[in-house]
## 1
Amino acid sequence: MIRGRGFHVRRAVATALALAIACSPLPAQLPSLGDAYELTPSAERRIGERIARELYRDPDYIDDPVLGEYIQSLWQPLLAAARVRGELTPDMEQRYAWRVLLGRDRSINAFALPGGWLGLHLGLLAVTTSRDELASVLAHELSHVTQRHIARIMSQDKRQTPWMIGAVILGALAASKSPDAGAALIAGGQAAAVQGQLNFSRDMEREADRIGLGVLTQAGFEGQGFVTMFEKLQQSSRLNDNGAFPYLRTHPLTLERIVDMRARQPLGERPAPQRPDLEHALMAARARALSTGGVELHQALVREADAIPADATPQRRAAALYAGALAALQLREPARARSYQEQLAARVAPDRVGARLARLLSAEVALASGDAPRALADIGTPQTRTETLLMAQAAVRAGRADDAVQRLQTWVTVNPTDGTAWQLLATAQAALGQTLRAIRSEAEARVAWLDYPAAMDRLRAAQELARKGTVDHIEASIIDTRARAVEVLLREQALER
């Protein structure tokens, strides 16, 4: 698992377009779909990037390649379906980010931001029991973006600049983790007034449900996922209304919405029984193990792995062992983690996807145990981002940094916005004594995380190093070109203030 750089503010975003997006009175008049929006897609994306910068910096932000790969296996079909249905226009697809950021928070929450950024708490993933349920949440949030609900809300008050609205969202996000800090950020006549207007109306929620359901089924998922997710959230919040369900504050579940989703299921069809899904069970278990909770959570997961009920389903047994292994790693008990992993591998061997996840878990355990050669053997030839990043870590530790550099350079050429890959590349280059290249890779990682001032600092350090002695002149030229590009981004960022 690989951590990124930030997500408590995410809890803020959730409550930005959460407190700030769902809990106050209805907006006066909802523009029709044909109305022109004064906020352009480019401006909307810049607002989203301003908020995403804070999410990347938050300690709760996590870039876990295994979970990220699974989320993308749901997200990409949803995007394709929205494209086929005409919800996702070519202009919107090109200008918006369309990225899902993960946060460790155990609370049940997901949220959309301006410009195609989505946030998902591991707590929400952990409570879902099927990929259809998780996909229904992503489809709903995707539809908020494609229908430009956020832009409509922002356009209602023509007195406010987009950047003031962005500041208000950040203030509301900060308020979710520190009410005093949030109040300080949003205090002031106009800002306080705008905050009350950043709320999805019931009409917008119904529209996101309706369009989201169409996108969900077009993508090949079961529409029943919407119904079971709604029912699960409603029932759980009734039994445990302790603030752990911010998603229900940002997207209040009315009986009308639930009935509407039930009514939209195909006539005459009885709900299909939920199909056993080993991959989803393991991913929900991984989300539990990697979410916030500390030692107590990890100890509880280990106890669960040690005492699996005799009547547990195969999926539940596998999930308990998978979560137990990850928890044992967090508790620095690699031998126990290896025991759970081996039991898991034996149970899931007939399942191709399960066997792969068990093998990747074996590589993680080997890395934590300091056995880099075994990790490399488990990984084999990298085929996906998950294996590429794990292989890079293992190769550096095994004294084969040159292999890591070769793989990662190929990867970032095709995926230049992968900040984690750039950071690992910097580590591998530094291990080979390629200092100038390592500094540039660090700068590229900061660009990918939207931290342009930090990127500029690294590029200037690289330029200074290049001036001091014999260097790779091609690399020095690349650094100068990138420095000019980042200067442009910094100037654009300065205009937002």
Note: The beta strands are 2-3, 61-63, 99-103, 110-113, 117-121.
## 2
Amino acid sequence: MFEAITRRFTDIIGNITRKKITEGNIKETLREIRVALLEADVAFEVIKDFLAKVEAEALGDRVLKGVNPGQQFISVVYEEMAKLMGPVDTSLHYAQQGPTVILMAGLQGSGKTTTCGKLALLLKTEQKRRPLLVAADVQRPAAVEQLKKLGEQIGVPVFSESGVKPPQICLHSLDFAKRQGCDTVILDSAGRLHIDEAMMAEVKEVAALTTPQEIFLVCDAMTGQDAVKSAKQFNEQLSLTGVILTKLDGDARGGAALSVKAITGKPIKFVGVGEKLENTLKPFRPDGMAQRILGFGDVLQLVDDARKVVNAEEATQLQEKLLSATFNLNDFLKHISAVKKMGSMKDLLKMVPGLGAHVDDMGVEDKELSQIEAIIQSMTPKERERPEILNTSRRDRIARGAQVARTEVDGLLKQFQMMKKFMDEFSRAGGKGPLGKIKALASAKKQMSDITGMMHKMVEATGPQQQKGTQKGRGGPQQPGNPKTGSASGLSKDEIRKRRKAERQNKKKNRR
């Protein structure tokens, strides 16, 4: 999700935090942000308004005369980006009497029918509602059968009628819902390959007959500005109450997420990833999305996902270990089954602060989790708790037990230690809130290139795959050094002078 724009913003943040802030380099940075947003397919009018607000705030006393002006500037960008996509109230409006009606509209191919199933599952499991799915999409072949199969998988009834027009099917479903004791009706309306008068007339008639409490437009995030244009046209005809963005895991740009609220005035209520029903809809959080786009990760979302598959006490422990960098291989093994339920491994890593722009360079694949699990299970509890005691003979034993090459065990342990080191650096830098995350990124900058280069070797630890190359200036292996002085030794100028003075004093003693 948003790999390209996250990479660009990570570079921009790294540059601005190392500079002395002036009006000139603020404007230079704004030009870089403009290019990044254009490449992300954000609407031009949205970019223009966004940059104007950032510039007005950035050229004030808060940034130019404030403490840590570089961090203050990035904080302004973060705040304005969160405002651009929000605020969002993800609660649903329920009818006081009779069943609540939710009308789902959208074009063919946007994932509308699957989203209906996901929404029904979310309402059933998290809000304890009794939903009814209504198959009113008679335009697309097999849409009715698809919805029936989805309803069967999640245990939700599906209403359908043959030889009846969609508006009448939707109207009849309300009486059926009352008889069946269903309190929420989800209408899967018909779509088209493009917006036309017949589709709009039909969906407007459905809305007039059923008076829905919520009208959601389902948009394919991968279509970029086309999704925003269709949202604007639907809103002009239907008075939408919200937008659901689907296939967000396949969108590397992010233009739809950043533009749709500003263009339509309607909030993004939920986001969807994947085709499977267990990949349920997630409430849209503008602040969390802004953090991920800027490369700050999203620990809150990570913990929220964990809370759904583990109890509250375990989720709290996981949060503490992630933020304090005290987690060990025992903890990882305990949660590895939960990780599998939480979604794609890549998506989870992108929520770790500082890793969003570098996950693709790691070569991590979901199928590798089972192999990693086998390696860890071949260790003793003590070895999992203290991996530093794993000598040559112990590693050979683990490799035989997991039926993998010794190099794969070595690689996994090396990556685990690098991750712990990075998270420890992040924790000590005070990684709380956007300013803390910026400070963490700046203090850990000299390690980022080494970490990224080492992550390339994750493939060697988990299976033979071809490594991806890194682009120059995008996190490839570099010489570690002090971020302020550029010293290859990693020492500041004062530290270098002190060391040289001590060496001269030692030489004098030796001569005596």
Note: The radius of gyration is 26 Å.
## 3
Amino acid sequence: MKKIKELYIRYKEIINYLIFGVLATAVKFGTYIIFSRLFNLDEVLSSGLSWFCAVSFAYITNKIFVFDSKTTTFIQTLKEVFMFFIARILSGILCDVGTFALMVKIFHINDIIATIVTQAMVIIMNYILSKTVVFSKKHI
């Protein structure tokens, strides 16, 4: 048990990032079901709303539990939120959609394999952008 605690303390940021990433995925899936099935909204609208909910959840949990951000003013927090959403939009366009399309349409890689590869890239890109840009201690 002591060894597990030491490993957790050593890799706390990455472990928490992965845990809350899984939870954000659950938020996206759950809110999609609520919007599309319970409220009978269009699938694309439901997907967009669920993405917004998941990214909002990810921002809050990353701020508090992963990167321990200590913004002190409303403007700093607003800038942090804006940068977080921009980073997620970029990773979505570049990796999730762009790289997937390139792999499937140009290189004729199996779509399931492409999905796995692009999702790994998105996770890594989001972590790097969050750590070095969004929640960087230099910006506070």
Note: DSSP finds five helices and no strands in the chain.
## 4
Amino acid sequence: MNGTKKVAFYTLGCKLNFSETSTIARSFTEEGFHRVDFSEKAEIYVINTCSVTENADKRFKTIVKRALNVNPEAFVIAVGCYAQLKPHELAAVDGVDLVLGATEKFKVTSYLNDLLNNVNDTTTSGAVIHSCEIEEADFYVGSYSIGDRTRAFLKVQDGCDYKCTYCTIPLARGISRSDTLENVLQNAEEISQKGIKEIVLTGVNIGDYGKGEFGNKSHEHTFFELCKALDKVDGIERLRISSIEPNLLKDETIDFVAQSRTFVPHFHIPLQSGSNDLLKLMRRRYLRELYLDRVHHIRRVMPDACIGVDVIVGFPGETEAHFLETYHFLNELDISYLHVFTYSERENTAAASMKGVVPLKVRNKRSKMLRGLSAKKRRAFYENQVGTIRTVLFEGENKEGYIHGFTENYIKVKAPWNPALVNTIQKVHLTSIDEDGLVRFEYVSNPAFA
């Protein structure tokens, strides 16, 4: 390929998608491409799709139009979860040239080469699709993001064996499988050698880490063993666990994080509903009592930990009583913030045919109530942390004259822009909450920055 070609990437969805986009981008760089921002003119645009919510599906068309507005002659490639679930639907979007499914996305440059070499083949018209049966997605491809952000997303696991009734992820990503411990540690060392201060462990169901390839259900290593091994890698200053199922977050892991050298006191634990009736309908693998126990255990050993919660509103069969049960459960729970998802019907899921459909207006009202509760919880958590000494990792973007960063327990702070702070960790004293909800501070470790 011509080394002057430019390629741009857009990622929809989760941290896992960001890690995979970064890995795919490196394969283009190795082929001689020059990576540019998605807002710039490029010959190739790659969109990594998500299909967790209906809104993510709709956004895809908008992103394609944005690319073609910059370069109407561009070659547009769709990869990722939506590309696996509905390849023909994506291929029908005006301007899309190539659609790659779950296993094919990591060979994107090969498919692109083949296609460009046959560009004059008059027997092909419209977008070309390469999408496997999801049962074929039984091997593991390691990924991590680097160079995109101050922190790196390190993929340790992919796929899911759970059968939650609302979820398409097993259909889009296949069975649960993991990277080897040796590969994870090697990737972590590569990241640390590039000067990145924080690694976020990511996957579809990371608490299930250790399952091998080809559907091997036995665990060669556990998530706890992975954490212990990563804690010993030189050069890593912070390790953060992304979303982890409550039934897979064991006491031993919580206790280890509490005294770890590098793991930070931050947990994101999906709840989805505070009603046991709905948890059973969702086929979740726990009840609210276990969730309560997880939160209480974290608070006992890490009183200042940040605890985030996923919750779904408007699931089929959710009555007003069920919703209020969830609301009051969360209101009384000592958590730090919520990620609220308004239920949307997904094809080929059990929930899509369930009775008791909740009207959209009611779903939106309940979502608004929980978002309000989240704002209250976050404010209370921040207020509780004012007056404490924390460490902040500063980000690399100048946002209207300010630099932002996050404490180890995920409090977002702001200070006047200073490029010398980028990608540094500073000890600070949290002093007040600004009118925009972010926290101000005074420097402890380096007053020269004040």
Note: The longest helix spans residues 360-385.
